[in-house]
Amino acid sequence: MLQDVVRAESFLDHNQSLQLLEANEQLLLSSLVAQADNQSALQALDEAARTVGLDPLTKLANRTLALDRIKQAITHAERQGTWLAVLFVDLDKFKQINDSFGHAVGDQVLRRVAQCLLATVRQSDTVSRHGGDEFLILLDNLAKIEDALVIAEKIEEALLVSGGEENSFEDLSASIGISIFPRDAETASDLIACADQAMYMAKRQGPGGISFFVDDTDPLELSPRQVLDATPKQALQERSKAMAQQLKRQSKELELLREAHQQLLLSLESTWGPQTTVQSQSTRQAELLVNISAELNDPHSAIRMAMVALDRAQDEGPLTPRARAMLLQQTLDLRELINVLLHPIRNQA
């Protein structure tokens, strides 16, 4: 009986040891599983943090991130006094690619275009997907505005080469609109809107068109190079102001000339003397008046050139119509005065 009790106690201790060992194994496995889950969660968190603001298809910056980058670039440009450009890129005939080859092929084209754009611009620039087949490119710290056009032309060439890698997309191209800070707009949203409008101007030129934002101008009348060479609006306003001041001075000179003619007429009436004197004075007066008449009728005279300049003024202010009317009236008055003065002299001749 004692031996049975000892065997029972030994059996009980053995079972408890097994249970304790099994519990320890389960605890170790649970700890390993928890550690693996924790590591996976950390990796997922890092991946989520890395991909915030990225387009899931192209891995480019999305709208939100692009808008934030443009705002930061504007702040920097204002502080440094530099230029920046926003390029609005819209693929031509992309709907036909989707309809003909399917959306999977269309997505492949978008990814290829994204890599093409990244390879064309500088590392400091931002390429983003605006939505669908539209992309935005932020060109920061431009040395001159013309650099934006150079980049746009390189993009067109790169897209053509990229499309030629497969025979189906040899004519791959994009319409590109360009807006410039601070020339065209001063906020990020306005810059994007101006670039969007310029892109539609480019589409009117045909596939592969490029256009700067030009306010109140037919985009078909100006090429991108002509837009760069065109006089800025501020310069036009300054030139118009200078022209108005010049016309004002010419008006005063014409008024002095009219007074001189009146004095001459009074002089003629008061100094009428002997016949020889009259003939001598008449000859001198005729020569003077003929010279004045020739000057007024000369298309290269100051008055006529001012009239032509006024007719061609691109930015007429309120003063310009009044100045033109004043010059025209004074010219007519002078001609009438000369005809009156010449009439008795011609009769004597």
UniProtKB/TrEMBL annotation:
Coiled-coil residue windows: 233-267
Keywords: Coiled coil
Tree of life domain: Bacteria
Sequence ranges assigned to domain GGDEF in this UniProt record: 82-215
InterPro entries the record matches: DGC-Regulatory_Protein (IPR052163), GGDEF_dom (IPR000160), Nucleotide_cyclase (IPR029787), Rev_trsase/Diguanyl_cyclase (IPR043128)
Any Pfam family hit: GGDEF
Gene3D superfamilies: 3.30.70.270
SUPFAM superfamilies: Nucleotide cyclase
UniProt-recorded name of the protein: GGDEF domain-containing protein
Lineage, uppermost ranks: Bacteria, Pseudomonadati, Pseudomonadota, Betaproteobacteria, Burkholderiales
